[in-house]
Write a structure and sequence with these properties.
The complex is a heterodimer of chains A (about 700) and B (about 45).
Chain A: E1 12-17, H1 24-35, E2 40-46, E3 51-56, H2 62-71, E4 77-78, H3 91-115, H4 120-141, H5 143-154, H6 161-180, H7 188-219, E5 226-230, E6 236-240, E7 249-252, E8 261-266, E9 269-272, H8 274-277, E10 283-285, E11 290-291, E12 296-297, E13 302-308, H9 314-324, H10 327-330, H11 335-360, H12 365-378, H13 382-401, E14 404-406, H14 411-416, E15 420-423, H15 425-429, E16 430-436, H16 438-442, H17 446-456, H18 462-473, E17 482-487, E18 491-496, E19 499-504, E20 513-518, E21 524-532, H19 536-545, E22 549-553, H20 558-568, E23 571-573, H21 578-590, E24 595-598, H22 605-610, E25 613-617, H23 622-627, E26 630-632, H24 639-673, H25 679-697
Parallel strand pairs in A: 15-22, 15-24, 22-23, 24-25, 25-26
Antiparallel strand pairs in A: 1-3, 1-4, 2-3, 5-6, 5-7, 7-13, 8-11, 8-13, 9-10, 9-12, 14-26, 16-21, 17-18, 18-19, 19-20, 20-21
Helix pairs in contact in A: 3-4, 3-7, 4-6, 4-7, 5-6, 6-7, 6-12, 7-13, 7-25, 11-12, 12-24, 13-24, 13-25, 17-18, 24-25
Chain B: H1 2-27, H2 34-40
Classes of the chains: A alpha+beta (about 700), B mainly alpha (about 45).
Chain lengths: ~700, ~45
């Protein structure tokens, strides 16, 4: 079937997340690979959000698309409905920015003529044109500030938008009055320039946030979103997680995650619960045992009768715990708003004193008011409004290049204050996936390694895949095999150069590992264990040097925690349930500590949400990714001290920016109070102080080094 | 002075034209995928 043969209105839509796309080559490979499939009308990649939208015949199943992408080497997942279109924070600000920029430039053009000596009717004409452009432009593009200021005032609070809105509105009102009464000074240019600068800062800030969020979204939804359901008559059908119902029988293949809680009906296998509980050792389960949604089936296919699905699973219970603990976070007041609480009353008092002073000195009411208004215009916090967002944009950009995505604007502020860190064990301190013992791997002969790689590459079992990865990393080439056969629950069997070979589960299944058998030669046992992340010790030493006390907080068995604690020299607590982790954080917070939580599992979700700041590795569960403020992509744990250092230097730059902005005010305010400020001086001073603040913030480009 | 009567409307009109073009681009999804647009120019369309 060709694309033209499909009627446009009968098309199905599927959105797939493809986190591995990063260049033009990947884009065209993905688009062509999908378009070549029968029944696919069009495939369009969005590289920013790492997603591809496919228009296809409704008969084409999303699983076929995922398979087609896997064939050309891209891992992908179908998106859940609610995640397909993350709302952009930058887009609604683009149109106001364009209008403000257009108006500011044109009004500035007219203002320059007035400043350079246009007199009489020419000046009046220019003022009127400025008013015609300026008033509607300010009304339209100032809305983001006005509505935010109004929202804050309604709740009886103030934020940075309050003095900004007052300054802009008063400048516009005075200019309009001056224009109508054919006065000498109009301030439209200043008001518009202020709005343009501030909007530009906010757009940049929002774009950075959007990028980080898109990066995290592309990592989401690793958990199974459905299952093969066997009907009583023997037919099999793929059912989405939301449509699974208690009583149905799911057939779960090795390497698949469970989509719902249930009870095993037939088959036995081991399950990796590390995302759910933090436990590394696989749990054996046979017919009659209960298994939980989100766990990974490691060994053999099993049939599971669904007991709870969708909103009733253990997963959903953890989500409820998390919702309750996000209040800490929302009570945090950002530094810009704390500054505004001091700043706004101060400048308004100054303006009032100015008016009173001039009245007492015998000036007319009109003159005193105009000078008072000039004080408000000149103190309008342009540089102050840029001080925080620009510094954070530059720092977030530097961190993103270093592989750390900052999801929340206030995260850097909160992270800078941290003095205590709690680290999860499985998946955070350790890599979270069992690796073959390096010593046992080194003991293999080249021939054994080559056969082991060949056998491992024929299996989807997680241990096989990790073994293959480790061998490929060592530069091993696979040996040619014949008659390859994978027996579920047993291993991979094949013939190599006439000898029977096998990579299978060891006879005594006490420890995690695989056995390599070559003909009659003695069996090689390869033990697997969860290893510390590379650079974990160096990272912890750096954290210590930054004055941050670290300890382990894990859901795993105390013995496993003790082993890692010995290796790292940290103290540790094991067997912590999600609520225990939350309590531990609350106790530290009550003792006045600022806590950073680093974790990846579902069980860490509530703790991540409750801590002052939180980080998660990219391999984390959906819940972990969503709850954390920052997500680090690289394997190394050095991301932690790096992010904290960047956060601290960001805050010191923000404080310098505040000092610069206030210093400018200390110079300009006496002039304004003396009645000597003209629109020209105001425009020059405002842009100069803004440029200073932006220039100072640019020093953060290397913050993540 | 009479020059201004012609030149100011022309200057404003050109500016408005640019603004209108930007709004058109915004509404037609030209800013949906900035990274992709930057990369797409490198793809050879030989089929």
């Amino acid at each position: 079937m060709t694309a033209a043969a499909i009627r446009a209105d009968a098309l199905g839509h599927t959105v797939l997340a493809v986190p591995g796309m990063h260049c033009a080559g990947c884009m065209s490979k993905v688009e062509r690979g999908l378009s070549a499939l029968p029944g696919v009308a069009e495939a369009r990649v969005n590289l920013t959000s790492r997603m591809v939208t496919v228009d296809h015949d409704p008969a084409v199943q999303p699983r076929q698309l995922v398979q087609a992408l896997a064939d050309i080497g891209f891992e992908s997942q179908t998106r859940r409905e609610e995640l397909t279109a993350p709302p952009s924070a930058a887009k609604p600000l683009l149109a106001p920015l364009a209008v403000a920029g257009f108006a500011a430039m044109n009004v500035m053009l007219l203002s320059v003529s007035v400043w350079s000596g246009a007199e009489g009717s020419t000046r009046e004409l220019f003022h009127w044109i400025s008013a015609l452009i300026g008033v509607p432009a300010i009304a339209y593009s100032g809305r983001p500030f006005f509505s935010s200021a109004l929202g804050a005032l309604r709740k009886g609070r103030t934020n940075m938008d309050v003095p900004i809105s007052i300054g802009v509105l008063i400048a516009t009102g005075l200019s309009l009055y001056e224009t109508i009464t054919l006065g000498e000074h109009a301030w439209f240019d200043g008001a518009l320039m202020l709005i343009t600068f501030l909007l530009a800062g906010r757009v940049l800030d929002a774009m950075m946030r959007d990028r980080a969020r898109a990066g995290v979204d592309a990592l989401l939804s690793q958990a199974a979103q459905g299952a093969m359901v066997a009907a009583p008559d023997g037919t099999m059908a793929w059912v989405q997680a939301a449509n699974l119902a208690p009583g149905q029988i799911m057939r779960v293949a090795a390497g698949e995650r469970l989509a719902a809680d249930g009870e095993i009906v037939s088959g036995n296998s081991s399950f990796d619960q590390s995302l759910l509980t933090g436990e590394t050792a696989p749990v054996l389960a046979r017919a009659g045992d209960k298994v939980l949604a989100g766990t990974l089936n490691l060994e053999a296919p099993v049939d599971v009768r669904v007991s709870h699905a969708g909103r009733d699973t253990t997963l959903a219970e953890i989500a409820r715990l998390m919702e309750a603990s996000t209040q800490n976070r929302s009570r945090y007041v950002r530094i810009a708003d704390r500054a505004a609480r001091l700043y706004a009353p101060a400048v308004h008092t100054l303006a009032a004193i100015t008016v009173l002073g001039w009245l007492l000195a015998g000036a007319s009411v009109y003159k005193a008011l105009v000078i008072g208004v000039a004080v408000l215009i000149i103190t309008c916090p342009c540089a102050l409004g840029l001080a925080v967002p620009v510094a954070q944009v530059v720092a977030s950009g530097a961190l993103m290049r270093a592989g750390i995505m900052v999801k929340d604007g206030s995260a850097l502020e909160r992270l800078a204050t941290v003095d205590r860190a709690l680290l999860d064990k499985t998946g955070t301190l350790t890599a979270g996936k069992p690796q073959p013992d390096p010593a046992a791997l080194a003991a293999l002969t080249p021939q054994e390694s080559a056969i082991a790689l060949a056998l491992a590459s024929h299996s989807r079992h997680p241990l096989s895949r990790n073994l293959a990865e480790a061998l490929i990393a060592k530069g091993v080439r696979a040996a040619p095999l014949e008659q390859v056969e994978e027996r579920p629950g047993e291993g991979v069997f094949a013939i190599c150069n006439g000898t029977a070979t096998a990579l299978r589960r060891p006879d005594n299944a006490d420890a995690m590992g695989v056995a390599l058998q070559l003909g009659d030669a003695p069996i090689r046992l390869l033990p697997f264990a969860d290893q510390l992340r590379p650079d974990a010790l160096a990272a912890l030493a750096r954290m210590q040097a930054l004055g941050i006390e670290c300890s382990i907080l894990s859901g795993d068995a105390p013995e496993a925690v003790a082993a890692i604690a010995r290796q790292t020299g940290l103290t540790g607590q094991g067997n912590a349930r999600p609520a225990d982790k939350q309590d531990a954080i609350q106790r530290l917070r009550d003792a006045g500590r600022k806590v950073l939580m680093v974790g990846d599992g579902l069980n860490d979700g509530p703790a991540l949400a409750a801590a002052d700041a939180s980080m998660a590795p990219a391999s984390a569960s959906d819940v972990g990714l969503q709850a954390a403020d920052m997500v680090f992509v690289q394997q190394t744990l050095l991301a932690l001290p790096r992010a904290i250092k960047a956060a601290r230097s960001t805050m010191s730059v923000v404080k310098q920016n505040f000092a610069l902005a206030i210093g400018y005010n200390m110079l300009a305010v006496p002039l304004a109070m003396a009645g000597m400020v003209t629109p020209l001086i105001a425009a020059a001073a405002m842009s100069l102080s803004s440029l200073l603040v932006v220039g100072n913030s640019l020093r953060l480009v290397r913050a993540a080094k | 002075m009479t020059g201004l009567v012609v030149l100011i409307p022309i200057a404003l009109g050109l500016g408005l034209l640019g603004l209108a073009a930007f709004f058109w681009a915004l509404r037609h999804g030209q800013f949906d995928d900035p990274d992709g647009s930057a990369a797409r120019i490198l793809i050879d369309e030989d089929d």
